[in-house]
């Protein structure tokens, strides 16, 4: 868990960096405290892999587009209430779908974490699974969730994995 009650009101980037540095003071953590949109695409240029745990669709769409344009693999995780989801995207040369193939248009954001809440333990589970997917991508071990969506039901302690088709009409990676 990255955050505690002392972090309330602090920027997530700074609070997370402080916690991670307390675990390993030798790590380098460049901080980018921005509301990510298409104007911030170049932030991702120097990274080999992107993990997206943002809490809004506008940022997710912008990160997905940037990753596609920069040919960067993307690990996307989300959680709300007792349910989490995880997928990996790398739409290089149209081989797999991108996030916009999964979510083609901006959803109504009525069911938000602020309104419905999110279980802290669930964010830990999804975050750990995102880290595992990142390790698989970096090392070439196993089969990352490219072209698949894993849905985790915290109430039922169940997990299912669905195949994600690539949308040829996708505004980001389509033909």
How do the helices and strands line up, and which of them pair or pack?
Blueprint: H1 12-23, E1 50-52, H2 57-70, E2 74-80, E3 83-89, H3 99-102, H4 113-116, H5 120-139, E4 148-153, E5 158-163
Parallel strand pairs: 1-2
Antiparallel strand pairs: 2-3, 3-4, 4-5
Outline of the structure:
The protein is of the alpha+beta class. It has helices at 12-23, 57-70, 99-102, 113-116, 120-139, and strands at 50-52, 74-80, 83-89, 148-153, 158-163.
Describe this entry's structure for a reader.
- The protein is α+β, with helices and mostly antiparallel strands.
- The protein folds into two domains: 1-33, no CATH class; 38-163, Rossmann fold (3-Layer(aba) Sandwich).
- The chain has helices spanning 12-23, 57-70, 99-102, 113-116, 120-139; strands at 50-52, 74-80, 83-89, 148-153, 158-163.
- A five-stranded mixed beta sheet has the order 1-2-3-4-5, sandwiched between helices.
- The radius of gyration is 16 Å and the shape is globular.
- The relative contact order is 0.15.
Spatial ordering of strands, largest sheet: 1-2-3-4-5
Instruction: Catalogue the unreliable spans.
Output: none
**DSSP summary, beta strand count:** 5
Rg, Cα atoms, Å: 16 Å
In helices, the fraction of residues equals: 25-40%
Mean pLDDT comes to 90
Q: What global shape is seen?
A: globular
Estimate what percentage of residues fall within beta strands: 15-25%
Q: What is the helix tally?
A: 5
CATH class of the largest domain: Alpha Beta
CATH superfamily descriptor of the largest domain:
NAD(P)-binding Rossmann-like Domain
Number of domains: 2
Q: Please describe the biggest sheet, giving its number of strands, its sense, and whether it closes into a barrel.
A: 5 strands, mixed
Distance between the ends: 41 Å
* Structural category: alpha+beta
């Amino acid at each position: 868990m990255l955050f505690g009650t002392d972090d309330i009101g602090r920027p997530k980037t700074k609070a997370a960096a402080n916690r991670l540095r307390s675990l390993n003071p030798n790590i380098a953590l460049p901080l980018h405290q921005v509301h990510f949109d298409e104007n911030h695409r170049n932030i991702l240029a120097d990274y080999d892999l992107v993990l997206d745990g943002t809490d809004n669709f506008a940022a997710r769409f912008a990160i997905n587009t940037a990753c596609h344009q920069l040919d960067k693999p993307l690990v996307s995780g989300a959680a709300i209430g007792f349910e989490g989801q995880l997928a990996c995207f790398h739409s290089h040369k149209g081989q797999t779908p991108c996030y916009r193939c999964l979510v083609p248009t901006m959803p109504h954001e009525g069911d938000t974490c602020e309104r419905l809440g999110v279980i802290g333990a669930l964010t830990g589970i999804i975050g750990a699974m995102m880290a595992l997917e990142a390790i698989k991508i970096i090392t070439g071990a196993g089969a990352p969730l490219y072209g698949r969506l894993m849905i985790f039901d915290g109430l039922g302690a169940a997990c299912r994995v669905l195949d994600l088709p690539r949308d040829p009409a996708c505004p980001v990676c389509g033909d």
